[in-house]
Amino acid sequence: MASKAPPQESHNAMSLSRIAIASVLALSPLPALAAAPAGYPAAEAQVLDLATKSIAIRSVRGENNRTIDVAKLYKQALLAGGWKDSDIEITPVDDTAYIIATWPGSDPKLKPLVISGHMDVVEAKPSDWKRDPFTPVVEDGILYGRGATDMKFNGAVAVSSLIELRRSGFKPRRTIVIEFSGDEETVMKTTGLLSEKLKNAELVINADAGGGKLDEATGKPLYWVWDGAEKTYADFKLEVTNPGGHSSAPRPENAIVQLAQALVKVGAYKFPAEQNALTKAYFTQAAPFEADPKIAAAMRAFAASITDENAIAVLRANPATVGKVGTTCVPTMADAGHALNALPQRAAAYINCRIFPGHTRAEIMDELAKVVNQPEVKLIDVTEGSFETAASPMRADFVAASTKAIRKAWGKDLAVVPSQSSGATDSMYFRRLGIPAYGASSTFTKDSEEFSHGLNERVRLENIRPGVTYYLSLLTDLAK
């Protein structure tokens, strides 16, 4: 467990709000590009400003949730960028809020293009972090803080790029809407409300999914991924109840022991390997860029045959690929007992599952019950805000526009790979309504620096200029 930064480190780690964009980019060159794209000083500075200010806002569900302040920060930037007050809606919902900002197009008959994201972040305990999670810090061209990758930096890039597009004089034929939900990391209530309000959308660009992979040794971009589908999120509760009693008189039935036996079975169980068109394309097209020959060979072998046990074992042992092989279920929380000197009357644990498309939550819960095979263990579906959705079509206009944009930003020979997200995103609410939604973040990262939801979350600031370049191209092509 890491401790807070010592005074000397805190002194050396400068707040981003005091770093000029030029000096940041000097620390974070664009090594992957033969010729860096033209700069956008105002937009690039605004990305830093919005990213740092939003990270400093503790937008976590529960007491003192300040998600609405992130919405107000975005609104202030958009108003200064030319939006009318009447075109921006901030709606409080419970302890959070959502925001919708509309840039009307010249042709009202065309359905709007939606840019989607979220403002909330998962909890972060300062005592566990090396740096305070809600104090944005830059060191060696890397921004640290809760939300750096998920997804306040991406939100800042999207907002700033849209403002830059308007500043450039562009006149969209198709209406452009940018919206941010306020509880994507929890119950997704605001996402459901947003999708209903925007159910006439033509398509959705989700800035919270997809993205690029950087080479671990050189830092150069290897390939870029867009997501056209996602696994279904599910939470199941395992519970055992006993009469309890005095700890000096143990009984054969102990709720904690019984629950532990069930958890060991769940932890050891592997769901059958599966594949669809998106995951097959990912393994086939991403394999040439995998630095580890063993993993690369496993990717090719699995793409050729989903019954290759050796390939499956290798891919399941790799955090970057395990979620793409099939359904996964893992214990995430446990709670048991009521006193140190008493037999437990209750023991409960939670299993988080990411379900491969084509299966229902009920089907997976039934399979878990068979795996546990203990009548005393009760399984309950406690999932909130999640459901099964079909994949979005591989629309030619999106594929062409996103490929053009990402290559303009990161290099003309960059490989573009379709994929399926292992995590849950707001896209599921739009797909549920039949609206094509694509995870298409412009941000590139190394696998070793991926700390979303974890300690010391970070993002490389070399992503700023390519990110703006990407959105200017993408939005121009899809909205013109």
From TrEMBL:
Any single GO BP term: proteolysis
Signal peptide (UniProt feature, chain positions): 1-34
Keyword Protease: yes
Keyword Hydrolase: yes
Stretches of the chain forming a coiled coil according to its record: none
Gene3D superfamilies: 1.10.150.900, 3.30.70.360, Zn peptidases
UniProt keyword terms in alphabetical order: Hydrolase, Metal-binding, Protease, Signal, Zinc
GO molecular function: metal ion binding; peptidase activity
Domain of life: Bacteria
Family per similarity comment: Belongs to the peptidase M20A family.
Protein name per UniProt: Peptidase M20 dimerisation domain-containing protein
Species assigned in the record: Novosphingobium fuchskuhlense
